[in-house]
Write a structure and sequence with these properties.
It contains 22 helices and twelve strands. By secondary structure, it is an alpha+beta fold. Strands 1, 2, 3, 4 and 5 form a five-stranded mixed beta sheet that branches.
């Protein structure tokens, strides 16, 4: 991963591509002209001038001196600006027609006035991003060559505190000055016990992860480019998409980077991408799936906690051919459910069951399981149905209870069925097949919805779900209520309950004078499958009730067959 980010940063540096993410905000400017304080003014943040601002994202955290930083408390932010200029003064006055320390003196003398002026100026600003900096003689600090030099030199000084001669862990070159203070990813810190070798002393931090200055620069630019162009939303989470070359085909990486950094090409890219498997409108996985297998993609899911970052999931080496397989499988599921799902199948259908363990939860507490499934999809790892069905049934049962109150029962069951077929077609979920089974008038449906319905017990349960739904709808049309739903025990029925349910459904339909030839045909098929299944089905309660719910959901397709497509 790190060499790939360095390679991206190296390309970005060579081509002079702007890797900093676009920022919208305001800049509060302290004006110093001819050693006099001449007031505060506010201007819009201009991304084309970012090199003049000497802005480095994250550099102002804590009490670090900096020439340009987010304006939080006027006094604290003012001190960061002044302290940085003071540090510059120690470097001398190379090619400047003014004395920096005199500027610092002016700022300190007018400190109270300046802070008060800043407070007054910003009180009506509603925009979140507001930055503070100093202009000297109507120029931003980065418009002076000396301050650009000072910006880099002060950064180097910080690194030297934990630097030494050694081997760079990124480029593997020897006898280079390397440092451990490389915060491309904030996975560890050098100022707390437990992260530094050599007796917790900061001067030995370089031993943990030695990186030379060139690699550090490329890594920083690579991270900025990823954040700006390859940072995507993922159902309450986010990931960085990191391309990595397998063989020497730099043109592939160049093409991806150039498209993502060129506005006109970005517009073209957005117009040509039609299919998405996530909720990010900027997702580009379909475009990347068209590449040859000379490049792989890494998915880095990060969580930021205060000033640190934690890896939630790192998916390595996903080939374009794997992405193609995923999109082909998505297309198959979309065709299967084309009349039911408007936007087609995506990871959102899976997220339905893996966000919160209960509706009362404030935070998504099932991210771990969701990410495990995402990993399986991209890497081709097997998923156990017994694991999935537990989560399917939690959601399905909750919706059944709301059956008379705008329930999403049918949509939730459909989400589960689509997910199941997606996993099966993708080859990451297997079902045992029964070899000898007599043909059925419902064979087309069983084939359509995959191998999950390939044993007699499952087929019988599925069809019983459809028959029960026909009864519930008859009750609703007659009484505007569904009293029989109590017999379903909140979808926690076991094998014995299911077997005893069939005669109860038949009797109730007869009471409504609704046990017509079509339903008799259906009941006969159910009884036959139960007989073929015999005793001890070896199915969990969740599994039994899942197939029952699927049958309820597909009642219309069953009805079309038993009534030969006549109206019911």
């Amino acid at each position: 991963m790190i060499p790939s980010i360095k390679e991206i940063g190296s390309f970005v540096n060579k081509k002079g591509i702007q890797s900093q993410r676009s920022i919208e905000g305001k800049i509060t400017v302290i004006n110093i002209n001819n050693y006099n304080y001449s007031g505060i003014h506010i201007e819009d943040f201009d991304n084309s001038k970012i090199k003049f601002y000497l802005y480095k994202e994250g550099a102002s955290k804590g009490n670090n001196p900096t020439p340009f930083c987010p304006l939080t408390e006027p006094k604290k932010t003012f001190n960061k600006n002044v302290n940085w200029l003071k540090e510059c003064g120690k470097l001398g006055n190379k090619k400047l027609d003014f004395d920096i320390l005199n500027i610092v003196e002016v700022l300190n003398k007018q400190k109270e006035t300046i802070i008060e002026d800043i407070s007054q100026k910003i009180k009506d600003i509603k925009i979140k991003s507001n930055f503070l900096t100093v202009k000297i003689n109507d120029k931003f600090l980065g418009e002076y060559e000396f301050f650009k030099y000072a910006f880099q030199e002060l950064e180097r000084e910080k690194l030297r505190k934990s630097a030494n001669k050694g081997v760079c862990s990124v480029c593997n070159e020897t006898d280079k000055e390397v440092s451990g203070k490389v915060n491309v990813f904030r996975f560890y810190t050098t100022d707390k016990p437990g992260f530094i070798t050599g007796g917790f002393k900061e001067e030995y931090a370089w031993k943990n992860y030695p990186v030379c200055e060139d690699c550090k620069s490329n890594l920083e630019e690579g991270r900025k480019f990823l954040e700006s162009n390859l940072n995507f939303k993922f159902y309450g989470l986010s990931y960085l998409l990191i391309p990595q070359l397998l063989i020497g085909r730099e043109d592939v990486l160049n093409e991806i980077i150039e498209i993502l950094s060129d506005t006109n090409k970005k517009i073209y890219l957005k117009e040509r991408i039609k299919k998405k498997i996530t909720n990010d409108e900027n997702e580009i996985l379909e475009f990347l799936s068209e590449e040859n297998d000379v490049v792989t993609f890494n998915f880095l899911f990060l969580q930021t906690q205060q000033s640190a970052e934690r890896i939630l999931l790192f998916i390595e080496d996903v080939l374009p051919s794997r992405l193609r397989k995923i999109f082909e499988t998505k297309d198959y599921v979309d065709r299967l459910f084309q009349n039911d799902v408007e936007k087609g199948f995506n990871f959102g259908n899976i997220r339905t069951f893996f966000s919160k363990s209960s509706e009362e939860k404030r935070e998504n507490d099932l991210n771990k399981y969701f990410l495990e499934i995402v990993d399986s999809v991209f890497k081709g790892k097997t998923i156990e149905f017994s694991f999935l069905v537990k989560f399917f049934m939690v959601k399905i049962r909750n919706e059944l209870i709301k059956e008379t109150q705008e329930s999403k029962f049918n949509f939730i069951v459909k989400d589960a069925m689509m997910s199941l077929i997606f996993f099966e077609k993708l080859g990451i979920m297997n079902f045992k097949e029964e070899v000898s089974m007599s043909q059925s008038i419902f064979e087309e449906i069983f084939t359509k919805y995959g191998k999950s319905l390939s044993v007699p017990a499952k087929r019988g349960i599925f069809l019983l779900g459809a028959l029960t739904q026909l009864l519930l709808e008859k009750q609703w049309s007659e009484r505007k209520s569904k009293p029989f739903i109590k017999k379903l025990k909140g979808l926690k029925m076991d094998e014995r309950d299911i077997k005893s349910l069939l005669p109860e459904v038949q009797n109730k339909l007869e009471e409504y004078d609704a046990f017509d030839l079509g339903k008799q045909k259906l009941a006969k098929e159910i009884a036959r499958y139960f007989l073929e299944a015999g005793e001890n089905w070896r199915m969990s309660v969740d599994e039994i009730n899942f197939y029952f719910a699927c049958g309820m959901n597909l009642k219309n397709e069953i009805a079309e067959i038993i009534y030969k497509k006549e109206e019911i």
